Amino acid sequence: MLHEFIHGQERHMAVCHSYLYGYGRLYTRAQERLLSPKRYQVPSSLLKAMEWVFLKSKLDKLLLQLQAQLTAPKKKYKYFTESEVEGLNHEFVLLLDKARGIAGIPFKINSGFRTKEHNKAVGGVKNSAHLGGLAIDANAKGGSDIYIIVYACMQVGIKRIGINWDKHFVHIDVDYSKPTPTIYKY
């Protein structure tokens, strides 16, 4: 963790350096234009003051950007946004995140948490695991995607999997009040 933090700091300092170097080159070109024989001479004290103000404003902006990056809240999940998993059980999403990492393919969530009204509208069963935030339906393009998703879920300990061949999705749930382990046609 400390190594990642230090590496991140070095990267940010390199970015700051490259910005300042780039702005310095722009400033030098502007200075050369001002000091060309065709132009009037600018006193060196004014140039130094201009340089200080210019560099200070750029450095202030870079430091604010760096501070914003360092204080930004960390993502809870590596592969899912908060909006994708809204209403789902946190521990379940952590398992899904691990499975997604193992699978190496996206888990596009077609259906996650459902309200009773939404569940009824989509034809869900009354005791659906979706109602408790314990299930998702993940899009699968074909047999190989289904295999990869099922394999990855089993690797992280998910023991309830349904496969819908017609609609191309895998139902994944951790509602262990239902028959477990099981793989079924959905």
Structural write-up:
It is a single chain. With 186 residues, this protein is an alpha+beta fold. It folds into two domains: 2-71; 90-185, Muramoyl-pentapeptide Carboxypeptidase, domain 2 (2-Layer Sandwich), CATH 3.30.1380.10. Helices cover 51% and strands 12% of the residues. It has five helices and five strands. A five-stranded mixed beta sheet has the order 1-2-4-3-5, with helices on one face. A hairpin with a 4-residue loop joins β3 (160-164) and β4 (169-173). The radius of gyration is 28 Å and the shape is elongated. Mean pLDDT is 81; it is low at 12-17.
Largest sheet: 5 strands, mixed
Tally of individual domains: 2
Residues in β-strands, percent: 5-15%
Strand order of the largest sheet: 1-2-4-3-5
Number of extended strands: 5
CATH top level label of the largest domain: Alpha Beta
Keyphrases for this structure?
186 residues, alpha+beta, Muramoyl-pentapeptide Carboxypeptidase, domain 2, five-stranded mixed sheet, 5 helices, 12% strand
